[in-house]
Amino acid sequence: MDQLLIVTTGGTIDKIYFDDKSDYQIGDPQIGRMLDELGVAFRYTVIPIIRKDSLHITAEDRELIRATVAAQPARHVLITHGTDSMVETAKVLSTLDGKTIVLTGALSPARFRGSDAEFNIGCAVGAVQSLPPGAYIAMNGRIWDPAKVRKNVDANRFEAAG
């Protein structure tokens, strides 16, 4: 992997909570800070394009994400994304050829102690380097084909669809 392109779209991974009533806003992308702290041995570029909860990501937003990834020369792409509509975005990105694209996120904000963000990002970084071209989801310690996965909201995890 020559260079990793990271596209951030918001989601829980970047949320900042302000009170006990769950009032929040999407903050600055956390992934660059996390990778710097971990001392990774690869070059990366972060392009923040939207800051939304994934429940609010529209078809137009998905096309913007797709166009952004398509316009970049990088073949390895990691996208941080909210978990609620990650599968839909991955399906849109699966139409791109010649790129390995891995979407990941977190079920609790990266700023929180015990967040799954660092683990999911680590899995995604490994996956983007080792998988063939295509679009994938890295969540809960597994790599998923977006056509065969769903988020189980009640259990708060990803699982095989069907």
TrEMBL record:
Task: Indicate which residues the UniProt annotation says bind substrate.
Answer: 54, 83-84
Residues folding into a coiled coil are none
Domain L-asparaginase N-terminal, chain residue ranges per copy: 4-158
Question: Which positions carry the signal peptide feature in this UniProt record?
Answer: none
GO MF annotations in UniProt = asparaginase activity
One Pfam family in the UniProt entry: Asparaginase
**InterPro entries given in the database record:** Asp/glu_Ase-like_sf, Asparaginase/glutaminase-like, L-asparaginase_N, L-asparaginase_N_sf
The catalytic site is made up of 12
Q: What is the top-level taxon of the source organism?
A: Bacteria
Q: Give the protein's recorded name.
A: Asparaginase
| Native source species | Luteimonas aestuarii
